[in-house]
Amino acid sequence: MYENTRQITITQARQEASSIFLAKVFNWMAMGLGLTGVIAYMTASSGLARAIVGSPLFMILLFAELGLVFYLSARIAKIQASTAAALFIGYAVMNGVTLSAVFLAYTSSSIAGTFFITAGMFGAMALYGMVTKRDLSGLGSFLFMGLIGIIIASVVNIFLGNSGLGWMISVLGVFIFTGLTAYDVQKIKTMGEEGILEQGEAAVKKGSIIGALALYLDFINLFLMLLRFFGGSRD
Question: Does residue 107 contact residue 234 with C-beta atoms inside 8 Å?
Fold first, then answer.
C-alpha cells in the first residue's frame, strides 16, 4: 500500500515538473513567434522587404540564421543563459526580416488563414506528443533523415526551378514537421520528468530556450510548407 502511494506521488511530481517545464518552453516559443511576426509585418509595411529581398543582404541574413541555429544547438551547454536568450531573440528578429518576403508573395488574408491552419495542426500534434505513451524516438530519427533529404532537394531545386519537385518537397515537409512537432514535445516533456527543474535556474532557462527553438522551427517550417497549398498569390 505504502509503495503504491509512493509511486503515485513520484508520478504526480514528474507530471507536475513536466507541465511547468513545458509551459516555460511554450512561453519562449510564443514570444519568438510573436516577435518574428511583428518584425515581418513591419518590414513588409515599411517597404524595406522589397529592398532586402533583392539584395545580397537577404542571403547574408539566411546564412546568419543558419549559423545561429547551429551555434546555439551546439553550444547551449557551455554558454550563459543570458547569451542563449539573446541569441534566440536575435534569431527571431532576423527571421522576421527574411520572412517579410512572404508578404510580397502572398495576400495578407491567406497568410492569416494559413497561420491558423498551422496553429491547429501544430497544437494537435503537440497534444499528441504530450499524451501518447508510444516512444517516438525511433520516429524522430526517421523524420530527421527525411528533413536532411528535403533540405538537399530544396537546395538542388534552387538551380532546377522544378515546380513539381517543389510541390513534392512541400508535401513531404508537412508530414515531416508535423511528426517532428510530436517528437520534440515528447522529448521536452521527458526533460521535465527527468528533473531539469532541479538543475538550477540557468539550466532550466537554457533548456527551455533550446526546446523553444526546436518547436519554433517546427512551426515556422510547417507554416511555410502549408503556404504553398493555402497561400493566395499576389500575382
Answer: yes
What distance in Å separates the CA atoms of residue 162 and residue 67, rounded to the nearest whole number? 27
Residue 153 inside a domain? The answer is yes
Tell me 232's DSSP state.
P
Q: Which helix (H) or strand (E) holds 63?
A: helix 56-75
Question: Number of folded domains in the chain?
Answer: 1
The pLDDT, as a whole number, for residue 216 is 96
Distance CA 111, CA 230 (A): 8
In this prediction, residue 126 carries a pLDDT of 95
Could you tell me the three cell numbers for 99? 520572412
Torsion of CA 23, 26, 27, 30, to 10 degrees: -160
Domain membership flag for residue 235:
no
What is the torsion angle, in degrees rounded to the nearest 10, for the CA atoms of residue 58, residue 63, residue 68 and residue 73? 140
Report mean pLDDT in 10-residue bins for the chain, 235 residues.
Answer: 52 74 93 95 90 86 89 88 93 94 89 93 94 86 85 77 79 92 93 78 89 94 90 68
What span, in angstroms and rounded, lies between the C-alpha atoms of 144 and 180?
8
pLDDT given for residue 159 in this prediction: 75
One-letter amino acid of 157: N
Type of residue at 160: L
Enclosing domain of residue 185: 2-230
Task: Give the three-class secondary structure for 233.
Answer: strand
CA atoms of 25 and 6, how far apart (whole Å): 29
pLDDT at 5: 53
Residue that is written with C-alpha cell 508535423 in the block = 178
Q: Which residue has the cell 526546446?
A: 211
